[in-house]
Amino acid sequence: MSTGKQVLVIGGTSGIGRATAEFYARAGHRVILSGRDADRAKAVAVDIGGHSRGIGVDLALPAEIAGSLRDTGHVDHLVLAAVERDQNSVRAYDLDRAIRLTTLKLVGYTEVVHAVAGRMTGGGAAVLVGGLAMTRPYPGSTTVTTVNGGVASLVRTLAFELAPLRFNAVHPALVADTPYWQDKPQAVEGALKRTPTGRLATMDDIVDAIAFLLGNRAMNGANLTIDCGATLG
Ligand SMILES: NC(=O)c1ccc[n+]([C@@H]2O[C@H](COP(=O)([O-])OP(=O)(O)OC[C@H]3O[C@@H](n4cnc5c(N)ncnc54)[C@H](OP(=O)(O)O)[C@@H]3O)[C@@H](O)[C@H]2O)c1
């Protein structure tokens, strides 16, 4: 991995996005990380150090995304990791929640690409973070399953339309050390029992997969499941 790349991480203030931003900043790249609130994103960038800076981008407000991203300069690597949690079911369908997550993860992710694609270099690449719920629904995952399935299709049309830029997605199962799961030991324990390897993926595992997809020029339009073998049985 050569240094000196400009890496834009949308949803880079927490969890997998933040771990990705840290990885690239530590390796000497210039990192722009975003959250909804610019001040929070700037504070996280200071914490991470290196050549990183924070900006505010709200994917639930797609009409404002291009303006929020106007000062990024060129982008070599783009990582889309933002999410807001959603518990939803068809029988008790919460329209506001469904519209919010669908807007954020499908329209919002696409609009970010629309906004920066013209500033991505020929060797540019992006990784979108979906999730295993795309093929493994769980109670309350109606919207999550739908949008992650959408992410799987989105990378294919992006790779097709915006060649030679490359687009891939990672689809993790439960990532044990993300902040979201810290206060849910029972769910983590349950997921652990379903893996033949006796372990769950960590943020480092996911960042490693993201770096592989961004760096390997043969990877394009791929959807990489990362589940420690949980779906084998
Ligand atoms: N954690 C897991 O086990 C797991 C499993 C499968 C898939 N995933 C996927 O992995 C990705 C990262 O998950 P995570 O658990 O690491 O995330 P997280 O810790 O919850 O962080 C979410 C990030 O999204 C940003 N964000 C939230 N709402 C936003 C909005 N409206 N516009 C722009 N940014 C927004 C947050 O920034 P602010 O709060 O600063 O705004 C934060 O940086 C997500 O796409 C998730 O679906 C995670």
UniProtKB/TrEMBL annotation:
Keywords (A to Z) from UniProt: Oxidoreductase
Keyword Transport found: no
Listed InterPro entries: NAD(P)-bd_dom_sf, SDR_DHRS6-like, SDR_fam
Highest taxon above the source species: Bacteria
A Pfam family reported for this protein in Swiss-Prot or TrEMBL: adh_short_C2
Family affiliation: Belongs to the short-chain dehydrogenases/reductases (SDR) family.
Name this protein carries in UniProt: SDR family oxidoreductase
